[in-house]
Every structure is written in C-alpha cells, then in structure tokens.
Design goal:
Layout lengths: L11 H11 L11 H4 L2 E3 L8 E8 L21 E8 L1 E10 L11 H30 L2 H4 L12 E3 L4 E2 L2 E2 L18 H16 L5 E4 L1 H8 L2 H7 L13 E2 L2 E5 L4 E3 L27 E3 L2 E4 L2 E9 L4 E6 L3 H7 L6 E7 L4 E14 L5 E9 L1
Parallel strand pairs: 1-15, 5-18, 8-10
Antiparallel strand pairs: 2-3, 4-17, 5-6, 6-7, 8-14, 9-10, 11-12, 13-14, 14-18, 15-17, 16-17
C-alpha cells in the first residue's frame, strides 16, 4: 500500500464505489486543423525510404506561335526543375506502470480504464506534435522546416495586418490595424478581405475557400459594426452575427488547437511543444498555449491562414520491420507494450515517423497580427 499514500489516494473505498463519478477528464477536446488539410500518406518507396527528393516544375506559360506552312517550328523553353529533398523524423512517447500496481485496491477494471485513457493521451501527444509541426510549416519557421526539408516559402503570401504590409511592403489596400483594434474606429474588415482574396488569386491561380480564425478574431468580428450592418440585411442575426461564411470564405473557427506546458517553464523547443502540465484548467489558472499565435512587440497575436483544400500531405515511413509487419501502413502509429523483470514494469510506447510536404506555398496565405489575445 506504500504506493497509494498520495493525497489523491486517501479514500480508496470511495474510489472503489464511485470511481465513475470521479473520472473527470479535463482539457480533453482536441481539434486538429492542418492535419485535416494534410492527410497522412505512405512515403515514397512504399514507406521504406526516409529520404527522397521532389522536383518542383516551373511552367514557362508561353503561347504557341502561328507558322507558315514551310516555316520551321521553334522549340519552347524547358520547364525549370527545382529539386527539394525531404526526410522523415521520428516522434514518440512512452509510459509505464508497475505490473501489480493497485491490483488489490480497485474493482470493475479501473486499471484497464486508466490504461486506455493513458494510451489515448499517448497517441494524442503524437497528434499534437504533428499538428504543432504543421503550424510551424504554415508559419514558415525555417528552424523547424530545416529539420525536414529544404523546401522554400518564396511563393507564400505573408500579410502583416496590423502594419498594413504584404510581403514586407506597405499596401495601401490594407487598413493597417489588427481586427481587434478599435482605438481609431471600426477596422475595415471588408477592405482587408477583398485585398487578401485578390492577392491569393494572383499567384495561386485559384479561389480561396477558407480562412482560419481564432477565438479573439471571432470575437473581434462579432463586434464589428460594419460587419453587423451588412449581414443584418442578409440574414437573421438573432443567434449570432458571425456565420460560417464571410465574403465567400468558409470561416474555420479554431478553438481547441492547444497544448500545455511543463509547470513553471517555457519549453518551446523546436518541434516539441512540451510534456504538458497535468493540472486542469480553470479561470484562475490558464496553463495552456495556443498553437497559432506569435509575439510582436511584447504582444501576442493570433495568426490565420487563407487557402484551399489542396494544401499538402504528411509523408510517413515505417519505424522498422516490426512496424511494417504489425501495422501494415506507416501512417498508423506504432504501439508496442512489454514487461520488464527488474523492476517489474509494463511499458507502452507509441511512435510515428513523418514529414510534412506542402505542395505549393502559394496555396497557404499567412495572415499575421490578426487579433491581439
């Protein structure tokens, strides 16, 4: 019983009888955003290769000439090919418990339930790492990207909304304020939207279909008078001003794309959000981080993405031959469990080897400084 003397274990009888009422999973909601837009696929070589190259073709976009019947036809310019290299990287985590831990203290399969919950948390940690890495790719974080690929972001449109800049140059078409800044009047949301859509169509050669927004961005749009004045003529707004679409863009409201830090530290290591704080959230303690945020001048802003559904993929490779034999596809997280004799423990590990691959950065327009948190 020495292992059960913690303050959370002082009432084992009560736990035996009423454990279902005490099981309260805090912060369980998890909403992958980029992972939905970039599905897991088998890497080149049926998942057996960890390194590969992809050629990026630049279309010369020339027009064929008209020729006289006997005139020699001139050859066109060759397409430009830029090879990019990629490599998958291994991520994973583990937990263990003593084989006989709590064996005589609980009934009704509490250990099995706890083990299942720990396994779910284990796989979610990998999913969060994947999502966090995809966020860094969308944001153009060269430190993170350099560990996977030499793919560049030159075709990506980058907007600094609060500064009124597009690709670091002043753009008079932008209002020059964050959508949460009402200090000088109502932010010109429609003007900004029109310009962003036009810039996207210019290089991406397609219509944008969605824009991601965080909770502060959603709130800022909800209280925007210009938005209300326009929408009130189009639909019933008694249940809320902001709908699912705005100026033809589907608004993807990102409300649970978060991770938690180690208590009292800031563990923003490259590609690793942190091990997480075990304490639950309440109004006096917010110990989680939003993934799609960045800091400017001591302020934390939400950033957004405008794009379409053809973003990219998550290339996956097999961990080893056992992964290939047991799971059949490298896109499946490889879970192993084994016992140790000394100490007598049961270990569980989960692993995934992956690499993000953005097909075309012109399809991911980055909007910085959208709303201050």
């Amino acid at each position: 019983m020495s292992g059960n003397l913690g303050d959370y274990m002082l009432v084992p009888d009560y736990l035996r009888r009423r454990y279902l009422e005490l099981v309260d999973l805090y912060d369980k909601e998890w909403e992958p955003y980029f992972s939905k837009l970039m599905p897991k696929v088998i890497g080149e070589g049926k998942g057996s290769l960890k390194y590969w190259t992809v050629g990026r073709m630049a279309d010369p976009q020339a027009m064929a000439k008209f020729y006289a019947p006997d005139e020699a036809i001139e050859p066109m310019n060759f397409p430009s090919i830029r090879p990019w290299s990629f490599q998958t990287r291994l991520t994973g985590n583990a937990f263990f418990r003593r084989r006989n831990m709590f064996a005589e203290d609980f009934e009704d399969g509490v250990i099995d339930k706890a083990h299942a919950e720990m396994l779910e948390a284990l796989t979610k940690m990998i999913d969060r790492t994947v999502e966090y890495t995809l966020c860094q790719f969308a944001f153009g974080n060269t430190t993170v990207m350099g560990r996977f690929t030499n793919q560049d972001t030159n075709r990506q449109g980058v907007v600094e909304l609060a500064q009124g800049k597009f690709n670091s140059a002043a753009a008079s078409e932008l209002g020059g304020v964050a959508w949460s800044d009402f200090s000088s009047g109502t932010p010109p949301v429609f003007k900004d939207f029109a310009y962003l859509k036009e810039r996207y169509k210019y290089l991406a050669n397609s219509n944008p279909v969605y824009m991601s927004i965080g909770r502060k961005t959603e709130y800022s749009l909800e209280i925007n008078d210009n938005l209300l004045n326009r929408l009130i003529r189009l639909k019933d707004t008694t249940n809320g001003v902001l709908g699912d679409y705005l100026m033809g863009l589907k608004l993807l409201k990102i409300t649970a794309q978060t991770y938690k830090e180690i208590p009292n530290t800031d563990e923003l290591m490259e590609g690793m959000p942190g091990k997480g704080d075990y304490l639950e959230l309440d109004w006096s303690r917010i110990n989680r981080k939003d993934m799609m945020t960045h800091d400017v001048g001591g302020k934390t802003y939400e950033w957004s993405v405008i794009g379409d559904d053809n973003v990219g993929e998550i290339k996956c490779s097999y961990i080893d031959e056992y992964h290939k034999d047991e799971r059949g596809s490298p896109t499946q997280i490889f879970i192993e469990q084994w016992e140790e004799r000394n100490p007598r423990s049961v270990w569980t590990t989960a692993q995934l080897e992956f690499c993000p691959h953005v097909k075309d950065y012109a399809k991911i327009m980055l909007i910085k400084e959208v709303a201050e948190q």
